Amino acid sequence: MRSSYRAKYLLSAMLLVLMSMFAAACGDDEEGGGGGGGEQSAQGKTVGVIAPFANPFQTDIRRGAEEVARENGVEMIYLNYDADSEREFRYVQDMINRDVDAVIYGANDAEVSVAGFRRINNAGIPAVCFDTCVVPEQQQQLTEAFVTSDNKQLGNLAGKSAADWINENVDGTAQVGFVTCNTQSVCRERFDAQLEALKEADYEEVANQVAVESDKVLTTTEGILQGNQDLDVIVTNGLPQTEGGVAAINRLKRDTVLFGMDMTARIARDLLDRGGPLQAAVGQDGPAIGRTMMERAIEVLEGRKPERFLWEIPGTLYTKDDPEAVREFLATTSEE
Amino acid sequence: MALIALITLYSQIAPNFLTWSNLTTVLNQSVYVGLIAGGMTLVILAGEIDVSVGSAAAFAGVVLALLLEEMAWPLALAATVFLGTFIGVVAGWIRAVFLIPSFIVTLALFGALRGLALLLTDAIPQAPEPLSNSFFTFLGSGKILELPAAVLLLLVLFAAFWFVSTKTAFGTHVYAVGGNPEASHLVGVPVRRVRITLFAITGGCAALSGIVLAAALGAGDPNVTQGLEFEVIAAVIVGGTSLYGGRGTMAGTVLGVLFIAVLGNGLVLMGIDPYANFVVRGLVVLAAVLVMSSTLRDHIRGVARRIAGRGRGRPTPRPTEEEQ
What we know:
By secondary structure, chain A is α/β, with parallel strands linked by helices. Chain A contains twelve helices and twelve strands. In chain B, β1 (143-144) and β2 (147-148) form a beta hairpin.
C-alpha cells in the first residue's frame, strides 16, 4: 500500500517534470530564442529601448527606430532614464520583468552600465547598444551590435573647424574656453578628439567647465566670459552646451565665437545669423542611428547575426560659410 | 556676514569679480532663484515646503513657448502665469484639505510637471519666433539704467513680499501658522486659506522664473532648472529662515539669494575644477548655515565661558535656566 503510493507519487513527479520540459522546449521554439539557427519572423515581438536621456537627438533616434519597428510589425517600448544610474538599472529590471524579446540600450557609463547589460544577458535577452556602449573588452560578450555616431569624427570635425578659424583670424595665441558634458563617456570621447584636432592651432586653454543643462550652461558660460575678457573661442561638445553658450555670448554682447555640436532648427537659425557667435556645428544623424539599431535588433530576433559589430554613423559639419547646407537641413528636419 | 566675507575673498582671488559687468551678471543669474525665493520664504515660514518649483519653472517655459505659437504674446504670458498659479492652488488645496504633507504633494508635482514638459515637447526645446520679439529680448537680456531688466522685476517682487510679510494680516497669519498651526486655527487664523494662497504664490513665482529663463535662452527647454528647488531652499535657509517655520525675514532671503549667486560665479571665475565646484558649493552653504546657527553660537559661547572660568581657577558656572 505504502510502496504503491510512493510509485504513484514518483510517477506523477516524473510526468510533471517531463511536461515542464516539453512546455519549455515549445516556449523556446515560439520565442525563437537560444539561437536555433533557423530564420524566424520578428513580427509581433517586443523590443525595449532604454535611452540615456531626453533631448532632440534622442527624439530623432526614437523616431527612426519607431519607423523600422512599425514597418516590421514589432512593438517598441521606450524608456529614458535621464542619465540617472539608479533609474537606469530599475528600467533594465522593468524590461526583464516585461519579458521583452530584445533590448536596445544606451549606456550611461561604459563601466557602470556593464552590470545592466549583464542582467539582460543573464535573463537570456539579446541586447544591442546604441549611442554609448560598455567598455570595449566587454562589448562583444554582452551585446550583439553597437550603433553610434562616429564620436571621434564629430569631435575632430568641430576641433578642426575651430583650429582653422583660429589660424585664419587670430594673431598670436588664441584664448579658448571649453564648456562640456564630460560627465558622460561619449562626451569625453568627442572632447579628446577636439583637443587632438586643436593641436593644429596656437591656443591656450583658459577655462574648462562641465555644465549639462542649458540654464546651467548659460550661467557657467557667462562666468567664463566675465573671467576671461579676451576669450576668442568657446568649444562645446553637446547640444545644451552649444545652445546655452550662444545665449550667454549674445546676452553679454561679446565677440567671442563658438564651435559646437549637434544640429537643431534653433542651432541652424543661429548659424544663419551672419553676426551671431556660432561659426560651426556638427550634426549627428539621429534618424539613421535609430533605424540602424532597430534593424540590428530585428536581425537578431530573426535569428540572423549582424554582418558586423560596430556601426558608426558619420556626422555632418554645418558652417556659417555654407548657409545653403544649413537651409537644406532646416527644410528637412522633423522639428520644422 | 557670510556674504561680505565671500565678496571680500573673491575680490582678492577671482579675476574680474569686482567689475560692474560681472556684478550685473551675478544679479542677472540670481533672478531665476530669486523670483521663487520670496514665495518660498513665505512657504517655509508657514512650516511648509515646495519641492516642485524647478519642474514648475521648466513646465512654464515650455507652456509659454507652445502658447506663443497659438496666441498673442501678452495673452500667452498671462495664461502661463495663471496656469502656474492654478497648479499651485491645486497643490495647496490638496495639502490643506486632505492634510497630506506638502513635501509629498509637491514631490508628486515635481515628477508630473517635468514629465508633462517632456511629453508636450518630445524633449525638444521650443523656440517660437515671438520668443525673440523685443519684449522677451528685453526681459531676458535688456537693461534699464545699466541694471538688467529682470533684476528690476525681482526687486519689485521682493518689495511686495516684504510688504506682505511685515505689514499685512496675511503676513502675520503666515508666521502664526508656521509657529503653531493648531493654536492659530483656535484663535481664528484661516489656516486652510493661508496654505492654499502660499502654494498659489510659489506656483506663480515658478511660472515667472520659467518665463524669464525662456526669454534669456530664447527657448522653452523642458530639461532646464534641474535642482533649482534645492538652490531656492538653500538660499532661503542661508538667509536665516528656519526650516521649522515661524522665523525668518525677506531681507535675509535677499542676502541668501545673492550669496548663492556670488558663490557659483566666483568658483567659475577662478576656474575651479568643475567636479570640485559641486563639493565647494555644498561645503560653503553648510558652513554659512552653521555660522548662523544659534545652537552653534550658544555652544561656542558655552565653551568660551568654560575656558574663561578654568583660566580664573574657578569652577565652570552652570548655565541658568534663562541661558538654556
